[in-house]
Write a structure and sequence with these properties.
Elements: E1 3-6, H1 16-25, E2 33-37, E3 57-60, H2 76-102, E4 106-110, H3 118-129, E5 133-136, H4 141-147, H5 157-169, E6 175-176, H6 179-189, E7 194-195, E8 220-225, H7 230-246, E9 251-256, H8 261-266, E10 273-276
Parallel strand pairs: 1-2, 1-4, 2-3, 4-5, 6-7, 8-9, 9-10
């Protein structure tokens, strides 16, 4: 059964979501799926240590029409009240057109993206075409709305809860990467989810990540890999503060990320912290 995968983050972009999708789909035949994204993926900008592009056909959606005036005089909510449903409908039409053309029998849509509209747009597209819809929760969609910078007036949790509830009710099945996310969605909506743990390539020698120095002197490493953004800052700041209170020079936090190390340090994530560049898949 051919399916369409909708995701803002796709290989070769250096994000944790891209890594997971690459590992899940790299062995599938190119005719088994197609990729749909609202991000402009330029192969020329591929980083040396980014995941390679997938074999499936890639469709990059053009930006939707948006009303760009109206943030003055208290009109922000009115403007976004038009722009959000308009963008969802226009993107849904584009996704539905690809699904019909590629003769896909299901739509899998991932959380994330600069405007968080992929999930509702993909759900609406599934209704237009008449195929099952599977949201893939790499992140907590409900809480992403509270941190988003793209929409300023409608980033509150009341709107997010209504939007998420509609998506969940219309889903054939919800995919989650860990037990916690599954239990959280069960608590909110009383649903059972499908668990797919994030795959990990284990080196043959079971050694450290390629290019990373081996621990020495009995150092205790707390290792984090992946993107670091607004949703993570509080957790990292609390962890750094706990390490400082611990007062042990042999315990350090090691962060492997493509994000700017200096910017994270400016956010206060510094001290018993060692930064590493994004590591190669090979």
């Amino acid at each position: 059964m051919k399916f369409a995968l909708v995701s803002f983050h796709l290989p070769p972009s250096p994000s944790g979501q891209s890594m997971v999708l690459h590992r899940l789909l790299r062995d599938l035949d190119a005719v088994a799926y197609c990729l749909i994204t609202s991000q402009n993926h330029d192969p020329a900008e591929e980083q040396e240590n980014s995941p390679r592009e997938l074999a499936g056909r890639l469709f990059s959606l053009p930006p939707e029409f948006q009303i760009t005036r109206g943030y003055r005089y208290g009109l922000a909510k009115f403007r976004e009240g038009i722009n959000i449903p308009l963008a969802i409908i226009l993107r849904a039409w584009q996704i539905a057109a690809v699904v019909r053309r590629e003769n896909c029998r299901a739509i899998v849509a991932c959380t994330g993206g600069h405007d968080l509209l992929d999930l509702p747009a993909a759900y609406l597209a599934s209704r237009m075409v008449g195929v099952p819809f599977y949201p893939y929760y790499f992140d907590d969609y409900y809480y992403q709305w509270a941190a988003i910078a793209h929409w300023k007036a409608l980033s509150g949790r009341r709107f997010a809860r209504r939007l998420e509830a509609a998506i969940i009710r219309g889903a054939k099945r919800v995919i989650v990467p860990n037990e916690f996310m599954g239990s959280e969605l069960r608590r909110r909506y009383g649903i059972e989810t499908t668990l797919i743990h994030n795959p990990c390539d284990v080196p043959e020698d079971e050694g450290a990540v390629s290019g990373a120095p081996s621990p020495s002197g009995g150092e205790v490493r707390i290792v984090y890999t992946g993107a670091v953004y607004d949703a993570h800052y509080d957790a990292f700041l609390n962890l750094v503060e706990a390490l400082k209170l611990l007062g042990r020079s042999d315990v350090k936090l090691h962060i492997y990320t493509a994000h700017s190390h200096s910017e994270l340090a400016e956010r206060g994530i510094r001290g018993p912290v060692v930064y590493h560049d994004h590591q190669s898949l090979s």
